[in-house]
Amino acid sequence: MNETTARLQRPYPRTFRLDENTEVSFRLMTPADTHRLVTFARALPEDDLLYLRMDITKLNVVMQWGQNIKEGRTVTVLAEVDNEIAGYVSLHHNEVTWQRHLGEVRLQVAPRYRARGLGRALAGEIFAIARSLGLSKLVAHMTPDQQGAIATVERLGFRREALLQNFVIDRSGQTRDLLVMSYDMPGRIAC
Ligand SMILES: CC(C)(COP(=O)(O)OP(=O)(O)OC[C@H]1O[C@@H](n2cnc3c(N)ncnc32)[C@H](O)[C@@H]1OP(=O)(O)O)[C@@H](O)C(=O)NCCC(=O)NCCS
């Protein structure tokens, strides 16, 4: 347990019922999950991989993710069904920069579990974690053509904050605009 996870006022593992036949278990990711995460990422459709902020099909990238978890810069909640990863949500933050009040959210659900409420439930975990950590604003990054992702985060209460031209390069090497969506945590004013 690092300093960040010690501050989470939320017990894990916890369970969530997706439907009457499917129980999902939520737990915190550790560096020991690295290979399972790579397997999860490699099974994602090419369309999803195109837009990933980091290429998590690569072992060294996920190892760095594990290191960020170990050092408390990232908190990731894994959703598992029958011991298999069904999705995850990550909160990235950095306590030593002038953006220490922000948390960046990354959310991913395996295709077979989509449109069943898992994304919303994972987002609920990250809202609770962000509250525990005292963050005042959440941000999510996507490209304007990720309509499903935009609709999802808008349903969760995020709003469009900025559109930055040619700010990212996708896996195919094409530059794309970056849409920054944000959510102000209730009762916490950033100043
Ligand atoms: C975006 C994603 C995480 C949503 O996960 P999910 O489990 O399908 O989401 P849910 O079923 O919990 O839906 C959450 C809300 O968004 C809405 N929603 C989900 N997908 C949608 C879509 N394609 N179009 C419109 N609305 C959508 C749902 O209706 C729901 O709203 P409601 O609860 O008010 O009815 C999933 O589609 C995914 O992993 N996509 C690829 C990766 C990605 O784009 N990640 C987001 C980057 S932060």
Any overview of this molecule?
The protein has helices at residues 3-7, 34-42, 46-50, 59-70, 118-132, 147-155, and strands at residues 14-19, 22-28, 74-81, 84-92, 102-109, 137-142, 159-169, 175-184. An eight-stranded mixed sheet has the order 1-2-3-4-5-6-8-7, sandwiched between helices. The protein has six helices and eight strands. Helix 2 (34-42) packs across helix 4 (59-70). It has 191 residues and is an alpha+beta fold. It starts with a helix and ends in a 7-residue tail after the last strand. The protein has one domain (3-140): Gcn5-related N-acetyltransferase (GNAT) (Aminopeptidase), CATH 3.40.630. The longest helix has 15 residues, at 118-132. Bound molecules: coenzyme A (COA). Coenzyme A (COA) binds at residues 48, 105-109, 114-120, 140, 142, 146, 148-149, 151-152, 155.
- Tell me, briefly, the overall form: globular
Q: What is the fold named in CATH at topology level?
A: Aminopeptidase
CATH architecture tag: 3-Layer(aba) Sandwich
* Structural domains: how many: 1
The unique ligands bound to this protein are: coenzyme A
The computed structural class is alpha+beta
- Estimate percent helicity: 25-40%
The strand order across the widest sheet is 1-2-3-4-5-6-8-7
Q: State the name of the first-level CATH class.
A: Alpha Beta
Strand element count: 8
> What does the main sheet amount to?
8 strands, mixed
* Average pLDDT score: 93
Low-confidence stretches: none
Quick one: CATH superfamily?
Gcn5-related N-acetyltransferase (GNAT)
Radius of gyration equals: 16 Å
Q: First CA to last CA: what distance? A: 31 Å
In sequence order, what are the helices and strands, one letter per element? Answer: HEEHHHEEEHEHEE
Strand content: 25-35%
Number of helices: 6
